[in-house]
């Protein structure tokens, strides 16, 4: 990747992050300039590799510029259990800013590009701009809410659980300007989606077929279309309140 491509990737990733924060509260021109000035090391990670190793000690937090990855935990000899899928514009380990020693790892589902922002930079940013500090805090609160919703969804049947996840991903991608008209580009295979949900490949294939037969989902390659939003929301009992999409002063 040449220098111009790297610069454009950082610009687009920061813009997605700023759009997300601006959906939750008004940002001043000074705050926007500070966020546009986020600096760090760009790193490319191939699909199937860890972006952050399980239980790593971190001195930087990673902003996902493009690609899709997942946060997971695992016992020493057990399978990975995922608790969130991350999309561009997410700080995938922002809580590491205060935790340092993580209790999980982050796996790249697709090829990913990240911006590793040193904690020293975040420390200066939050010291100078208390409002941005609160917005970053809100990011970690929403992460925790997503984890709770994923735990709740384990009590649902396959179609409802997959439908809920697809609704969540669509709303989050739409929030940062990467989805519209109930269509989204999602660089994940059905097998990876099954792993994220704890489904076997056979189970996830059958579940996708149920949604297709009911004219709720079109899945062609990496392009997904939610064909009947209201029915899919009703089936999955999806309520986006936990994603804190509305604008309210904090």
Characterise this structure.
This protein is of the alpha+beta class and 250 residues long. The chain folds into two domains: 3-151, Jelly Rolls; 153-243, Winged helix-like DNA-binding domain superfamily/Winged helix DNA-binding domain (Arc Repressor Mutant, subunit A). The protein is built from nine helices and eleven strands. The chain has helices spanning 3-24, 29-36, 96-99, 119-128, 130-153, 158-175, 190-197, 201-213, 229-236, and strands spanning 41-45, 50-52, 60-66, 69-73, 81-86, 105-108, 112-118, 179-180, 183-185, 217-220, 223-226. The strands form three sheets. The chain has a four-stranded antiparallel beta sheet with strand order 2-6-4-5. Strands 8-9-11-10 form a four-stranded antiparallel beta sheet. It has a three-stranded antiparallel beta sheet with strand order 1-7-3. A hairpin with a 7-residue loop joins strand 4 (69-73) and strand 5. Helix 6 packs across helix 8 (201-213). The mean pLDDT is 94.
Task: Give the tags.
Jelly Rolls, cNMP-bd_dom_sf, alpha+beta, four-stranded antiparallel β-sheet, 250 residues, DNA binding, Arc Repressor Mutant, subunit A, 9 helices, globular
* SSE order: HHEEEEEHEEHHHEEHHEEH
The overall average pLDDT, rounded, is: 94
Question: What proportion strand?
Answer: 15-25%
The number of strands is 11
How is the main sheet built? 4 strands, antiparallel
Protein name: Crp/Fnr family transcriptional regulator
Domain HTH crp-type: 156-230
InterPro entries: cNMP-bd_dom_sf, HTH_CRP, RmlC-like_jellyroll, WH-like_DNA-bd_sf, WH_DNA-bd_sf
Pfam family, one: HTH_Crp_2
């Amino acid at each position: 990747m040449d220098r111009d491509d790297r610069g454009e990737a950082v610009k687009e990733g920061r813009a997605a992050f700023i759009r997300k924060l601006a959906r939750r509260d008004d940002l001043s021109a000074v705050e926007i300039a500070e966020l546009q000035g986020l600096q760090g090391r760009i790193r490319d990670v191939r699909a199937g590799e860890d972006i952050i190793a399980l239980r790593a000690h971190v001195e930087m937090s990673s902003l996902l510029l493009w690609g899709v990855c997942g946060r997971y935990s695992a016992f020493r000899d057990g399978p990975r259990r995922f608790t969130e899928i991350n999309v561009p514009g997410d700080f995938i380990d922002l809580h590491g800013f205060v935790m340092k020693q993580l209790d999980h790892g982050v796996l790249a589902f697709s090829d990913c590009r990240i911006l590793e922002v040193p904690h020293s930079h975040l420390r200066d940013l939050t010291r100078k701009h208390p409002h941005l500090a609160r917005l970053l805090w809100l990011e970690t609160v929403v992460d925790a809410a997503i984890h709770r919703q994923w735990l709740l969804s384990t009590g649902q049947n396959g179609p409802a659980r997959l439908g809920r996840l697809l609704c969540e991903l669509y709303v989050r991608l739409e929030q940062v300007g990467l989805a519209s008209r109930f269509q989204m580009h999602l660089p994940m295979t059905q097998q990876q989606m099954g792993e994220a949900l704890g489904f076997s490949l056979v189970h996830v294939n059958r579940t996708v077929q149920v949604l297709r037969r009911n004219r709720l989902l079109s899945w062609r390659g990496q392009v997904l279309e939610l064909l009947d939003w209201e029915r899919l929301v009703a089936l999955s009992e999806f309520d986006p309140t936990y994603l804190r999409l509305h604008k309210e002063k904090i």
